[in-house]
Amino acid sequence: MAKLNWGMIGGGEGSQIGPAHRLSAGLDGEFSFVAGALDHRPEAGRDYGRRLGLDPSRSYGDWREMLEGERARPDRVDLVTVATPNATHFEITRAFLREGFHVLCEKPMTVTVAEGEELVALARETGRILAVNYGYTGYALVRHMRAMVARGDLGRIRLVVAEFAHGHHADAANADNPRVRWRYDPAQAGISAQFADCGIHAMHMASYVTGLEVERLSADIVSCLPSRQLEDDAMVNFRMSGGTVGRLWSSSVAIGRMHGLTIQVFGETGGLRWAQEQPNQLHYMPLNGRMQIIERGEGNLSPEADRASRVTVGHAEGMPLAFANIYRDLAEAIRARAEGRAVDPVADQYPKAEDGLRSMAAVAAVVASGKAGGEWVDARPPMFR
């Protein structure tokens, strides 16, 4: 089977996320990296692309040049990954969708709800795939949690507790570091910093695992470093469809916390706990039973978990492998559309444009509630109400 062609915008030299995408996209032999506009500095981007092995004619100076160069090629890219600063996601993604490209956009998909609704409508209109890189959903045991909840192992879900807290932005002396500063600059990050950067991973995970949507929320947001225009800590209470209760904490000033993405789900007949820093173990407690530790790669797991497991049981599994599962899902979805057939349900697990829109609605709701002293607000996008 011929490889699909893949291109990337952003993720240049020194990027945190670029290497993970390039490793992940190529891991299964589904995609060939053939085009890129990798840096906001045209010559630096062209040079880096050539050093990564791109044909010089397809190592572009900016995304507009890439769009123009790829649109008429018979071997044009099948999938474009957008890994640029938040404020640019909407314009770039919209332009490529309009020209019929499939897109994987880094989160947050947009910086406003209206932009998100426009992209959802455009993806539906064009029939193109628009995925959002909530990459942690690619972990095998996250997918097993989702399967366990869906098949009723926990009964009705009563409570979800999610966290994404770290302490990497706690040093006030580091406030002018460019890799930190942009996250708290409204011109580049939008209306929210920590919640839009990390909190929405935790909130999306709550919906992804349970299959329930966040309907309303109450938030307390604060800038623990007074010089910051946007929040670096958020505490959010939320209610999901079906009456499920949700609790979420996200922080970038929690010294001693390294990554801190954790999801706990409590139902009528059991509870689950998974932490991204220990991704090979899922803790499961059946009602009136004994605690069980489910190991990634062991026998008798769900088909979703089996498909997402990359290495044998007991060996470490990391973030690029989780990202690779998103890319493998997308390869199946792209091929299914091209062949006019249904997507394999076990592969139809990647986060979609609607997920990105719901996240932006949650960001807007958290900001509105935080400014209103924790008032409960509707967290749904207007088009989904």
Short description:
With 385 residues, the protein is an alpha/beta fold. The chain is built from 12 helices and 14 strands.
Mean pLDDT: 96
Structural class from helices and strands? alpha/beta
| Tally of strands | 14
> How much β-strand is present in the residues?
15-25%
Strand order of the largest sheet: 13-12-11-10-6-9-8-7-14
The protein's oligomeric status is single chain
Helix content: 25-40%
Listing every helix as H and every strand as E from the N terminus to the C terminus, the arrangement reads EHEHHEHEHEHEHHHEEEEEEEHHHE
Q: Report on the biggest sheet.
A: 9 strands, mixed
> Rough shape?
globular
How many DSSP H or I helices? Answer: 12
Description:
- The chain is of the alpha/beta class and 385 residues long.
- Helices cover 35% and strands 22% of the residues.
- It has twelve helices and 14 strands.
- A nine-stranded mixed β-sheet has the order 13-12-11-10-6-9-8-7-14. A five-stranded parallel β-sheet has the order 2-1-3-4-5, with helices on both faces.
- A hairpin with a 2-residue loop joins strand 10 and strand 11 (270-275).
- The longest helix has 21 residues, at 319-339.
